[in-house]
Structure formats: C-alpha cells, structure tokens
Amino acid sequence: MKHGARNQITGTVTEIKKGGVMCQVKVDTKAGNISSVMTLESLDSMGLKKGDQVSVLIKAVNTILVKE
Predict the structure, then answer these.
(1) Tens of pLDDT along the chain (68 residues)?
(2) Spatial CA neighbour of 12 closest among 54, 42, 48
(3) What residue spans define the domains of the chain?
(4) What CATH number was assigned to the domain covering residues 7-57?
(5) Cα dihedral sign for 11, 38, 45, 17?
(6) pTM of the model
C-alpha cells in the first residue's frame, strides 16, 4: 500500500477499548506505547484483535513539545 506517512513503527496490539461508535487500540512498540482511535466499523473491517502485529503509520501536521 502506498502512503505519504514517513514515520512507520511496528508493534503488537495489547488492548482494544470499545465505545458506542469508536474504539481505542493500544499498540506496544519498541518506541513505547501508542494509541489509535478509529471507528468500530474500521476495527471490524481490519479484523484487528489483541495480539495482532500491526504497522503504525504516523503523519502529523503539528507536534508540540512541552518542558515542565
């Protein structure tokens, strides 16, 4: 699949929290834990489940760093 995202990290799905319409999918990667929010329809279409290996594509317009 072609895409424009430059940041790609592989990981394992560790948790899926389902809501009424959306879900949060947590992925454990070498870079740390990453969460993604998607519709339940997308989750079902992808057939994602806990333990699946996935690629996390990250493309952000803004990245904000804060030093406390």
Answers:
(1) 777 777 889 999 999 999 999 999 999 999 999 999 999 999 999 999 999 999 998 887 777 778 88
(2) 54
(3) 7-57
(4) 2.40.50.100
(5) positive
(6) 0.82
